[in-house]
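From the pipeline queue, job 12 of 40. The input is one protein chain; the requested action is below.

Action: predict structure.
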Amino acid sequence: MNFDNLEQFATVAPGRFGKGPAAMLIAEDGIEVASTIAHLRSLGFRHIFVLAAPDLEVPPLIDDIKVQLHVIRARTRAPGATQAAVNILIDKMPGEWLHYCYNGEYLFYPFCEDRSVGEMVTWVMEERRSAILTYVIDLYAPDLRAHPNAVSLDSAMLDSSGYYAEGRPDINGHPKERQLNFYGGLRWRFEEHVAKPKRTIERIALFQALPGVRLYDDHTLSDEEMNTYACPWHHSLTAAICSFRVAKALRTNPGSRHDIADFRWHKSTQFHWSSLQLMELGLMEPGQWF
């Protein structure tokens, strides 16, 4: 199903798309749109919504009756475009689990090679959780001469350490319960090129579309409990979004591209596209899910 703009998408009756889980891909450009769709498809999402500019080509799904692809035309780089689109999707798929990401970003959760996203969120609901904290882990090409936009699936690297957390204060300066701001990756190592509000790497990118919930521009949700990293009684499952987005931006923006000749450092390691590797590095955890 295709939509000419967000306004047309907003006219769809709630429940029209049926059961989830569903994913929304915000295509900021044409880089790795096809591979991102393929990855979402492999995880078992029933619906994939692609938000894309009118002139951006979106590859179709061929002979797949299990997945429905929906294309929504919009200015994806306009301020608030992500929040507007995701909040409309929340209203259209009440009660279903939703994920959102950008092109060149790949969701990983514990044991995702063998277990579908539907199986995972079913277990999370049994834990009385309605959201999953995801850490955005920067990926980058090792050779920027061969890959000037820093994107290379075959040779992708990530930082194996350098991640840390700080307490998240409320409006009165007191730390919020079970909420932290997480830092690391390229946003930390090249922080002079990243605006302070955009330096954190946490994102509530997989959650249940509960009544009244809204996504904010800092990637948190209006329901404070959904922003927590764990439930009160034990550790909860967390996930990771492995993303070329920051590396691509640092190589594209005029203020940073001439200052960065190489993203590698002594803690860089090859990314194996493996949930086990991410768990061993402490970049996500299974909680009680075995």
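Job complete. The chain has eight helices and 13 strands.
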